[in-house]
Amino acid sequence: MNTLEKKSFYSFLGLYIVSSLLFISLIGYWYYTAQKNAFEKETYYKLQHIADMKAGEIITAHMQGHTLKKSFVPDGIELALIDVNGMVREGKLVEPFMSRKPGYFEARGYNIFVSDAPKDHLNIAFVVAQSKNLNDELIALKKKVLQGMLFAAILMAIIAWVLSKLFMKPVRQRVEQIERFINDVTHELNTPITSLSMATDQAMKQGKCSNKMMNNISISTKQLYDIYRSLTYLNFSNTKEVSEAIDLKEILTKSVSYYTLLAEIKHISFELDLESTVISMPESQATLLFGNLIGNAIKYSSPKSTITIVLKDKTLSIEDQGIGIERSKQKEIFEKFKRGTEYSGGFGVGLSIVKSICDHYNIEIRFSSVEAKGTTFTLLFS
Questions:
Q1: Which residue has the higher pLDDT, 42 or 171?
Q2: How many CA atoms lie within 13 A of 302 on its CB side?
Q3: Is the full-model pTM beyond 0.90?
Q4: Has residue 222 been placed in a domain?
Q5: Contact predicate 24/153, CB 8 Å
Q6: What CA–CA distance (Å, rounded) separates 100 from 114?
Q7: Is the pLDDT confidence value at 319 over 90?
Q8: DSSP class of residue 322?
Q9: Is residue 54 part of a domain?
Q10: Is 78 helix (H, G, I), strand (E, B) or coil?
Q11: Which of 126, 141, 156 is the last residue of a domain?
């Protein structure tokens, strides 16, 4: 990845992880708070229940004149009885100097419930139920929540990494397409520019310009202009142009004439069967449309072959006798930066421009291709 891609990757990764950690923290806090409240209520009612049971035993023993028996107390809970003089009659207090009045409070890690339910029976004023279970449960809960958050954070980090990779994959593909496009354009520009440079140098040295030099200059200039038109369309394809009534026969005749010198280099001839067909669209768009199709036909045609162009009944077909398009690549030839073959250069925008123009002006486009035999493009004008 280049610097910009790395920056995008780590920005997305960081944003995802930070937002995920924030979400996990909120969930962890909510879960801990909910569980803590539940534990606190459970402890309160448990201590109250045990204190009330002990108070009931005290009252029963007093009323029946029995000796108070030692009652069963669950593990983790300690009972203490305080008489009417404030002295501890049974058990012990975890907080010796606590206030001698009913209520519920915490001290030294214990939850303490003081009940005055005995009502001074057997001279017992208060039953005190004490438990450290809640503190131990909360410590265990914190540990559990932190472990869960750590596991979730690690899982989220892994997911973030995978998603970042998936997120960057189309970006990376697009960057590769653009880089390849720039390289291809550079390569395509190199040939006509070199040819122009050589032709002008020879003309200056000889003090005159031969027909061959003029042809080279003309061909190179047209190649540069074709590249310029394609790049201009890509940059300004949303610019609206005014449609006008044009005769496709005239546009095609001009386009064939424009590319004749380029075709002669490969000894390619044209076979035309054109009838006058008037439609409404900008002439520049029609010229660009036909230019890309004819230019491609020349580029991928075999030497000494024939390109057949037929325009009848609002249907145009351009057939070449070239290398054809591989079946596996036929589905993507209209995609931008895609090429049906690496043969004879190009930078993968010609047919995407053709498809864009056809879609804009409701022109149906079809094609058929057989490897090593040739390709036919058919346009149906409405």
A1: 42
A2: 10
A3: no
A4: no
A5: yes
A6: 8
A7: yes
A8: B
A9: yes
A10: strand
A11: 141
